[in-house]
């Protein structure tokens, strides 16, 4: 039977949201390991198997895909030690330590989010994608308007700048795309979706639909290195 989560997993996440403390978590860590971490790693491996058909460059070891539940509180005013969700991210091979396009999902007590895109590109990557859109924006729009993708996922706002980035023509027909600081699609499903045997299908169907968009966004990041002197177009 395909991997999915148990009602105890959502119960744990609801409890963690109310009791985000080390003593509470430590007393229930075996539950976390059994009901959340173990099935999450198994689900990632199953999704890796699906990637063979449509995104083989994104196959990665499950332990590398799954995010730690522990929060980095060093620079945050919020000192609660744990995330309220579990999550996974499939970066493209060769971009693991950077911020290229990839696939993501997370499960909290309230929702299941499935997403794909470029979220926090480094300066050089942001410039490379913007430059690529200058000449290839029509292809990108065709991918965005794919009927199946639009039925399954929605574009996110892209954190658009209020004015054109430096060095780019303000009247360019792709300025609405170039002004973005992130590109991608996402959808939010009920948390109870994670309890169903169809969980993997729900995630993979959306990843498969978004794969051409991710391939496009990674293309300028893998074609060539951006010159260090290329500093315009970031702000």
Observed structural traits:
alpha+beta; 235 residues; globular; disordered C terminus; BirA Bifunctional Protein, domain 2; 5 strands; 5-stranded antiparallel beta sheet
Give a brief rundown of this model:
The chain is of the alpha+beta class and 235 residues long. The protein has eight helices and five strands. Helix 5 packs across helix 8 (199-223).
- The CATH H-level superfamily is Protein of unknown function DUF1054
Gross geometry: globular
Total count of strands:
5
Strand content: 5-15%
CA-based gyration radius: 19 Å
Going across the major beta sheet, what is the strand order? 1-2-3-5-4
Q: Helix content range of the residues, please?
A: 40-55%
CATH topology: BirA Bifunctional Protein, domain 2
Q: How would you sum up this structure, described in words?
A:
The chain is α+β, with helices and mostly antiparallel strands and 235 residues long. It has a single domain (7-223), classed as BirA Bifunctional Protein, domain 2 (2-Layer Sandwich), CATH 3.30.930.20. It has helices at 7-18, 22-27, 29-54, 62-65, 123-144, 147-152, 175-178, 199-223, and strands spanning 85-90, 102-108, 111-118, 154-155, 183-190. Strands 1-2-3-5-4 form a 5-stranded antiparallel sheet. Strand 2 and strand 3 form a beta hairpin. Helix 3 packs across helix 8 (199-223). 28% of the residues are buried. Residues 225-235 have low confidence and may be disordered.
């Amino acid at each position: 039977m395909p991997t999915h989560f148990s009602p105890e997993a959502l119960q744990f996440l609801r409890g963690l949201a109310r009791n985000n403390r080390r003593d509470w978590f430590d007393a229930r860590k075996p539950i976390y390991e059994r009901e959340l971490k173990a099935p999450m790693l198994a689900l990632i491996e199953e999704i890796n198997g699906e990637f063979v058909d449509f995104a083989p460059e994104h196959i990665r070891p499950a332990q590398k895909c799954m995010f730690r539940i522990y929060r980095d509180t060093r620079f945050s005013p919020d000192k609660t030690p744990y995330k309220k969700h579990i999550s996974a991210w499939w970066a493209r091979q060769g971009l693991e330590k950077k911020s290229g396009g990839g696939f993501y999902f997370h499960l909290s007590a309230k929702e299941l989010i499935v997403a794909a895109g470029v979220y926090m590109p480094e300066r050089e990557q942001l410039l490379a994608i913007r430059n690529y859109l200058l000449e290839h924006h029509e292809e990108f729009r065709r991918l965005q308007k794919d009927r199946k993708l639009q039925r399954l996922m929605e574009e996110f706002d892209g954190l658009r700048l209020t004015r054109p980035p430096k060095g780019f023509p303000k009247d360019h027909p792709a300025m609405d795309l170039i002004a973005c600081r992130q590109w991608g699609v996402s959808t939010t499903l009920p948390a109870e979706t994670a309890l169903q045997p169809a969980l993997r299908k729900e995630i993979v169907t959306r990843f498969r639909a978004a794969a051409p968009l991710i391939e496009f966004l990674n293309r300028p990041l893998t074609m060539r290195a951006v010159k260090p002197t290329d500093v315009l177009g970031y702000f």
